Write a sequence for this structure.
């Protein structure tokens, strides 16, 4: 229940079935009685578990009592003969029947509850009119506080089915048996966005899934890009502010963003992904998802492995270029959301395959990069993708606010068998999500029907790292193996020539507009990654 819906709590429902929640039910004698208004539907968060996203949807309107239903009238045995037309009235020919007359709008009932309370018919509105003021207050506070990030998003519901038992790798309860379905909810979103942000704009896109298992709730938060700008959570707010509009005028600020990139050389790998065609997406159905951070799987014997999550679209991965992204942004800013909704509504489920990469923690020291560094990817040749199961999204939301916007994701929503690694960014993200959700949805956000954690208690949480040993001096230092440029160069050299051209074109369109010192620093970073990339990019910026 959000903090503005207190009057809907069970203890405060004095007159739930009236148009105004505090209008008296009985009328004084002699006053005309207005026909009964259909009751407003109960909020889905007050529904039993069977009416949650994984079960049967709630009815949008209450069903009438059978005792109040009127039986249909019996048709007459012989239909009456149509009356002949009057001689003075011409009869329209059959091919042009007279159009039906639209029904007149009903007059509002003449009762005081439909109007503001005034002194006489032309006098001022009274301050004591609590019906008026509370009606307006409910309108003003009718929307929840928006998310700071991933404001614009869309949701869908379905189930996840494992291909085989993963018991050797993890004790996660919903991965213990093959073909055992687990209800799931997914939200696709744009990280830096408002409600009006076009779906196709160059952006980080979220792909978050909530699994409603018999053992509790498990959240898996992914993006469509496999790496992030920074590796330490202490710089996370700075990185996000760099992507936001200017605090001076609210407009996009290229100098602000690229000045941050110049101060964070580890972001260059991320830039090669964001400014490629993978940064612009037309359809969520064709979008790949990456867990970005490194997590831990633990089996029942206590054996730990590092793990990275991947969602593979079974309809195939598709990206678009900057020109098509700009065209679609003007034609239909909600093109990806509509594509998702219409596909499911048309009987075409949206499917993704979950795959994982696994690594023995003992291997970390033999690599040329830190596997816990979220600005790095793991080689799929060295750590191949292992199929785990299939997510099928086959139901659309019926009430967007309570089913989609009330979803509260957190990487710390864990179950036995899944833990957080020592990834610095992941550790920083772990608990701040819950604070944001308390602000946005109220302290009881877990009990909302979308999140299915009624009667939740802190003891229900799963803590990471039990039984492990750590030691060392307290310090504030950079992570080891901080090579910021090698994987950025590898990515550029692995691109098709057309994709290289798109990357250089997208980068140069912005870099040529920023301050010279910033541009020179960023070009030096690209030169460290690949001299050819820096040379071609520098030429395009002139």
């Amino acid at each position: 229940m959000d903090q503005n819906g207190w009057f809907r709590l069970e203890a405060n429902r004095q007159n739930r079935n009236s148009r105004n929640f505090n209008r008296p039910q009985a009328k004084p004698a002699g006053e005309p009685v207005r026909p009964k208004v259909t009751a407003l539907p109960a909020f889905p968060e007050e529904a039993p578990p069977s009416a949650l996203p994984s079960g049967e949807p709630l009815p949008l309107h209450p069903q009438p009592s059978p005792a109040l239903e009127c039986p249909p009238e019996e048709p007459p045995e012989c239909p009456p003969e149509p009356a002949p037309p009057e001689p003075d009235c011409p009869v329209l020919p059959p091919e042009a029947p007279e159009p039906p007359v639209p029904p007149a709008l009903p007059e509002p009932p003449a009762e005081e509850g439909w109007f503001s309370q005034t002194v006489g018919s032309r006098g001022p509105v009274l301050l004591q009119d609590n019906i008026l003021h509370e009606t307006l207050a409910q309108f003003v506070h009718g929307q929840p506080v928006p998310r700071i990030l991933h404001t614009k998003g869309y949701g869908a519901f379905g189930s996840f089915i494992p291909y085989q038992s993963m018991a050797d790798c993890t004790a996660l309860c919903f991965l213990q048996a093959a073909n055992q379905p687990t209800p799931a909810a997914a939200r696709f979103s744009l990280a830096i966005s408002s409600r009006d942000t076009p779906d196709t704009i160059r952006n980080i896109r979220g792909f978050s899934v909530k699994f409603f298992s018999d053992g509790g709730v498990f959240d898996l938060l992914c993006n469509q890009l496999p790496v992030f700008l920074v590796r330490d959570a202490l710089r996370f707010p700075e990185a996000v502010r760099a992507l936001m509009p200017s605090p001076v005028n609210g407009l996009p600020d290229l100098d602000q963003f690229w000045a941050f990139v110049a101060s964070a050389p580890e972001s260059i790998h991320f830039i090669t992904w964001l400014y490629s065609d993978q940064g612009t997406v037309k359809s969520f159905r064709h979008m790949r998802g990456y867990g970005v951070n490194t997590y831990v799987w633990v089996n029942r014997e206590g054996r730990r492995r590092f793990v990275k999550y991947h969602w593979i679209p079974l309809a195939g991965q598709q990206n678009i270029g900057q020109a098509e992204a700009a065209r679609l942004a003007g034609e239909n800013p909600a093109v990806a959301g509509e594509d998702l909704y219409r596909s499911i509504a048309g009987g075409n489920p949206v499917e993704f395959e979950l795959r994982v990469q696994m690594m023995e923690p003992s291997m970390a020291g033999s690599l040329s990069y830190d596997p816990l560094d979220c600005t790095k990817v793991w080689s799929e040749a060295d750590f191949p993708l292992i199929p785990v199961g299939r997510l099928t999204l086959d139901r659309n939301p019926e009430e967007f606010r309570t089913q989609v916007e009330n979803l509260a994701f957190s990487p710390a929503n864990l179950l036995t068998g899944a833990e957080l690694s020592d990834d610095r960014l992941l550790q920083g993200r772990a608990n701040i999500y819950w604070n944001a959700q308390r602000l946005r949805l109220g302290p009881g956000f877990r009990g909302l029907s979308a999140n299915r954690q009624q009667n939740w208690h802190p003891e229900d949480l799963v803590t990471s790292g039990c039984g492990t040993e750590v030691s060392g001096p307290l310090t504030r230092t950079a992570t080891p193996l901080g090579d910021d440029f090698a994987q950025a160069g590898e990515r550029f050299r692995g691109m098709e020539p057309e994709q290289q051209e798109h990357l250089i074109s997208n980068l140069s369109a912005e870099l040529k507009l920023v301050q010279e010192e910033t541009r020179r620093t960023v070009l030096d970073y690209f030169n460290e990654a690949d001299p050819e990339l820096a040379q071609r990019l520098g030429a395009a910026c002139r």
Observations:
- The radius of gyration is 29 Å.
- Residues 136 and 473 are 58 Å apart (CA to CA).
- Residues 16-73, 84-97 have pLDDT under 50 and may be disordered.
- The beta strands are 152-162, 182-190, 205-213, 216-223, 289-290, 295-298, 304-313, 350-359, 386-395, 418-420.
